[in-house]
Amino acid sequence: MQMTIHSLEEKVLEVLKEVHDPEINTVSIIDLGMVEEINVQGRVVNIKILPTFLGCPALDLIKKNIETTVEAIKEVEEVKVEFIYHPSWTSDRISEAGRSGLKAFGIAPPPRLMDTDGSWHVDCPYCGSTYVTMENIFGPTACRSILYCKNCKNPFEAMKPISTLM
Ligand SMILES: [Zn+2]
């Protein structure tokens, strides 16, 4: 029995790799570090998700996508998706694959280190230059900023760093 339960959890994990942020289709919720827990009780799957950026409109859609995707597994009878806020999601949870997925989408991954004054720096996702300016701190959503690369002259988006220290 233990073996069966274990493999269903693995199946759930496997299909969750196909659930993407609706706005950034190159990055899965696994790579974003959003999935905190997968718990299988018989045929009921409980999934705990850490919301990423507060104010991002995609959460309901992500929840719906998780439910649809996991319910498609034939052993699964019910899926419960819960958003939890502890531990808090931080941009450090994004995996290496997630960081390259963001780059492939033209979004600079959030910087890992911040200056003590709270400012942050990103490299251009196109040419890797550090010579970028913060063109407009208000991007299309609360979680992204528009920056401008002075080296290759491309505007690009950057994900804001979110840390529990902020
Ligand atoms: Zn550039």
Quick description:
The protein has 166 residues and is α/β, with parallel strands linked by helices. The protein has three helices and nine strands, in the order H-E-E-E-E-H-E-H-E-E-E-E. The longest helix is centred in the N-terminal third of the chain and has 15 residues, at 2-16.
What keyword list fits this structure?
four-stranded mixed β-sheet; alpha/beta; single chain; 166 residues; 9 strands; 2 domains; 3 helices; GMP Synthetase, Chain A, domain 3; elongated; binds zinc ion; three-stranded mixed β-sheet
Q: Name the helix and strand elements from N-terminus to C-terminus, one letter apiece.
A: HEEEEHEHEEEE
How does the major sheet shape up?
A: 4 strands, mixed
The number of distinct helices, counting runs of at least 4 residues, comes to 3
In CATH terms, what is the architecture of the largest domain? 2-Layer Sandwich
CATH superfamily of the largest domain: Fe-S cluster assembly (FSCA)
Mean pLDDT: 83
Kindly report the CATH topology of the largest domain.
GMP Synthetase, Chain A, domain 3
Morphology call: elongated
Explain how this protein is built:
There is one protein chain. By secondary structure, this protein is of the alpha/beta class. It is built from three helices and nine strands. Strand 7 and strand 8 form a beta hairpin. The longest helix has 15 residues. It is elongated. It starts with a helix and ends in a 7-residue tail after the last strand. The chain binds zinc ion.
